[in-house]
Design brief:
278 residues, mainly beta, Immunoglobulin-like, 2 domains, 4-stranded mixed sheet, 2 helices, 20 strands, disordered N terminus, signal
């Protein structure tokens, strides 16, 4: 795979891309989901279900339909790739949107290694409104990386009214299925137990259920993802796994005391959580 090297902060890159990457628009939809917008590698839409809860939270999905042979990326792809971005600055009353991710897979292609999906995938999104009774019009830009032999940035604009068809059963099934596919919360028996800074690397220790077969995979994200390499399995014994992660910068003080977000997968099961770097 031939992939560009994308920085952790994509905003400057998007400005440079603007002269060559037209913004694609999907027609406004008067339903709880947007229309599909198609690209060379597949199609993308936004879906919501129900009405905001008492805390102003509205559940939705970035629905990504990939053509055979195409891929897309996890929240921290690695040294190459474009993590999903959702810009809701034009959406009235929407103050925040949190994207969640099913467990990815580690893909090795030539010298490149990245975390993502080689199949169609739904990314749950929780939209937060400034008040639960607000009219939650969604007017959003979505940025994704879609890859076959090379990576093509997908950028499109979607506008729709989630309240227009809030009880749509097909939309409800789509959203429920996406949330059901998320990793379970980490538990003492299946978790990252510690993450320690050891000079030029992190040493990460994990607990694994003894009944799970296969080799564990660890996927990590950090507020400064460019400082960390790909986790490498360094030891596996008695329900314990040890991973090492290369620190790609000399200043380890930027990591001390910060939090690492992770997904730990083995034997078809996965958990997610956070661990403090020490």
């Amino acid at each position: 795979m031939i992939s560009p090297q994308w920085p952790g902060n994509l905003s400057p890159m998007l400005k440079r891309l603007s002269f060559c990457l037209p913004l694609l628009f999907a027609a406004p939809a008067f339903s709880a989901s947007s229309g599909w917008h198609e690209s060379e590698g597949g199609a993308v839409r936004l879906v919501t279900s129900g009405l905001p809860d008492a805390g102003g939270r509205l559940r939705g999905v970035i629905d990504i339909k990939l053509k055979p042979g195409w891929k897309t990326y996890w929240r921290n792809p690695g040294s190459a790739g474009i993590p999903p971005e959702l810009d809701l600055s034009r959406s009235p009353h929407v103050t925040k949107a949190e994207i969640e991710y099913p467990a990815p897979e580690r893909v090795h292609e030539g010298e490149a290694s990245w975390a993502g999906y080689k199949h169609s995938v739904r990314l749950p999104v929780t939209f937060t409104l400034d008040r639960p009774d607000a009219v939650a019009l969604i007017d959003a830009d979505v940025l994704l990386g879609l890859c076959e032999a090379i990576c093509i940035p997908f950028q499109a604009s979607f506008a729709f009214d989630p309240g227009a068809d809030a009880d749509n059963q097909a939309d409800a099934f789509t959203v429920q299925a996406a949330y059901a596919a998320l990793p379970a919360p980490a538990s003492p028996a299946f978790t990252v137990a510690s993450a320690k800074i050891d000079r030029e690397r992190l040493t990460i220790e994990a607990n694994l259920p003894p009944e799970l077969p296969g080799q564990p995979e660890l996927f990590i994200d950090h507020e400064k993802p460019h400082l960390l390499g790909t986790p490498i399995l360094a030891g596996l014994e008695g329900g314990k796994a040890k991973f090492t992660v290369e620190i790609l910068g000399a200043d380890t003080s930027a990591l001390a005391g910060s939090w690492l977000t992770y997904t730990l997968a083995e034997g078809g099961r996965a958990v997610s959580g956070r661990v403090k770097l020490r």
